[in-house]
Amino acid sequence: MKALNLYGIEDLRYEDTPKPTIQNSFDVIIKVKATGICGSDTSRYKKLGPYHEGMTFGHEFSGVVEAIGEDVTHLNVGDAVTGCPAIACHNCEYCEKGEYSRCTKLFVIGSLEPGSFAEYVKLPANNVLKIPNNVDFDTAAMVEPSAVVAHGFYRTHIKPGSTVAVMGCGSIGLLAIQWAKIFGAIKIIAIDIDNHKLNIAKKLGADYTINSIEESLEEAIDAIPEQIDVAIESAGSPFTIGQVLTLPTKGGQVLLLGIPYSDIEIKRTQFEKILRNELNVIGSWNGLSAPFPGKEWDATIHYMSSGDLLVDPIISDRLDLSEGPETFFKLVNKKQHYDKVIFHP
Asked: Structural domain of residue 63, as residue ranges?
């Protein structure tokens, strides 16, 4: 089969790779129909390199069941599915408590095991979920990032009537805007430095948009009549992680979803907001809960099916997998603008 394999920093190759095979009774082989680029993929491509040289990359995907092990009972060959790429050990103290996102041996396919930038991918049966007929493959390829966002929201105290601010309007932030609506937020503030992304945010439900390069963030927030109950950091920028602490009202919450790939410096005045405003700062990792892979996945599939979670406005490019090396290079080196990229193997 063809796959995108990462050999080193900015060394991604489209090449022939052995097709996965059934090796135990709970294996599932999936023919990949759609697979998306995640922000963590671009950071590993640009800054970190592979865990293992030549590893098949990627972890957000959907597809059709190609083959199943003899003990797989909830799936049939030909089923349309998505896959949870997170592999938990199911044996550590956190797994035994159903806290799978805290598993001490947790990893995601595309790192230690082959991922989804390929014609076929293999997962344990418990990691594979069927998708309804009215959820297309491109949408289903974004169940994983949506589940990651939902996991964070379940950790907050968001309730109907809340005002929510989302800082960073990439794919995660645009999903967060929609999850804020699902959780009952009546006012949503979108913050970014890209007017194109802010326009998408408006279409997906943001009531206010702020370009923090073009105007003072503090003045723009002060001009909004509602107080912010929950502020969500979804950019993972060293600058926004400090800024987001200044947004919530006293006793409010900050949800950290973005992953920074460099050291962070927080100004004293920003850090003091945690203390003086008695903020609750919440970290969130992955998108898992009990029963595995969790309510985040079932809820995402439900709301995609109902039309409450839209991903089509987020997707800018649908490309052949063979365009992967060129696309990654252009993306990380800012040679071309992309929103969400979906590959079709």
From this structure: 2-143+311-344
